[in-house]
Amino acid sequence: MKIVIFGATGRTGSEILSRALKNGHEVKAFVRTPEKCEPHERLILVQGDVRNADEVKRVIEGADAVVSALGTDKTTTLTESIPLIIDGMTEHGVKRIVTIGTAGILQSRNESSQLRYQSKDSNRKLTFAAEEHHKAFDLLRNSALDWTIVCPTYLPDGEAVGNYRTERDFLPIDGKEISTKDTAAFAYDELIKKEHIGYRVGISY
Question: How many domains would you assign to the chain?
Answer without folding.
Answer: 1
